[in-house]
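Database export, one record per block. Field names are fixed; values are copied verbatim from the stored entry.
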Amino acid sequence: MSDILQKIVRDLRPLVEERKRSVPLDEKDFPVVPGFRANFPGVIAELKKASPSKGLIRPDFRPAELAVELEEAGAAALSVLTEPNYFQGSLDYLKSVRKQVKIPLLRKEFIFDPYQILEARYAGASAVLLIAALLEQKELVRLGEYARKLGLDVLGEAHNAEEIARLLDSPATLIGVNARNLRTFATDLSLVERLIGTIPQERCPVAESAITSGADMRRLRAAGACGFLIGETLMRAASPGAKLRELLA
């Protein structure tokens, strides 16, 4: 596990344990949500206020308003950052967005506990992210199976060929390749381009990070991408909706 993942999980774990004590949840009376995997090919537009590598990305961050704008611009789904310490996210953002849009939502979180998946289901998510670099294989499988049991799709995230192989041997319904190196924070779209074609189309290969133009999307689509997770490019734009339309054109 990279240093940044260790730090994020170390600081997140006490918050999750506190929520488990203060907000007990059971497996019933879930809200009805749209299916995630069926909405692709398309763009997963990410609602992200900040990141460890770039700091504050969008000072005027109004997730519910941005969600409506991006839905109207043609997003297939939205990714909502909920990690509070390094991304300035919140589960409340996910809840507020769910009230405003009809398209599926991904809870973008560093998930290591089944309770986080249960939270996501109650908050209105249609899918959760599981990061291969964060989890041992048995945990990857266990958490993926639990998410599927609750009716959630799973976007498994890989950074190399070995992690893709592990995700192919897991319940992940979509498999993403992240262009960002977790140790250096550098991005490499050519890595995504090389690896994306090794993922079967039925697992909906998703290109993640460093997508800044329609040309990038065409290049990755030609390599086999079924979905595109785009965050910073949209969040830095004066009008994220206009930027998404530009990318889709």
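Remark 1: The CA atoms of residues 56 and 84 lie 13 Å apart.
Remark 2: The chain has one domain: 3-20+41-248.
End of record.
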